[in-house]
Specification:
This protein is of the alpha+beta class. Helix 2 crosses helix 3. The longest helix has 13 residues.
């Protein structure tokens, strides 16, 4: 679906504050409140906007974040994914192309907890190798 400039501005405003009242969105966009509500409904219906959610701040986030690059044996993907899903510190897993098969995002309260999680990943049946990177600071974050 193509979005026009007004939809892009509306999405940008909602990314900054998804709780902004429709009346305020309308004022900022120079549109009628009903027009803005219709646009939001259409963007939701078409899947451009998947929903509205809470984005936790630094005070709630785990203090240690890491990324693990994981290579797995052929045909072991479902079993490895099942194991990763069972690990509470694993926040997201992405399949990727390139020298590794999976990118795993991890959060932990302590370095010991991170170490245990990385050990559980490395020990999972089907995992051939893993390499991890501890996040030091966030320089750019545009993830709505």
């Amino acid at each position: 679906m193509q979005i026009d400039e007004t939809d892009a501005e509306l999405i940008a405003l909602l990314r900054r504050d998804a709780r902004m009242p429709v009346a305020e969105l309308a004022r900022k966009l120079g549109l009628a409140r009903t027009t803005v509500q219709t646009r939001i409904d259409r963007l939701l219906e078409k899947g451009v906007i998947a929903g509205f959610t809470l984005r936790s701040g630094d005070a709630l986030s785990a203090p240690i974040r890491a990324t693990a690059l994981v290579s797995i044996a052929p045909r072991t993907g479902p079993a490895v994914l099942s194991r990763l899903h069972a690990l509470p510190n694993v926040e997201a897993v992405f399949t990727v192309s390139g020298r590794v098969d999976l990118v795993v995002e991890i959060s932990a309260q302590t370095t010991q907890e991170l170490d245990r999680t990385l050990d559980h990943i490395a020990e999972a049946k089907g995992v051939q190798s893993s390499e991890s990177f501890i996040h030091l600071s966030t320089k750019i974050d545009r993830r709505g």
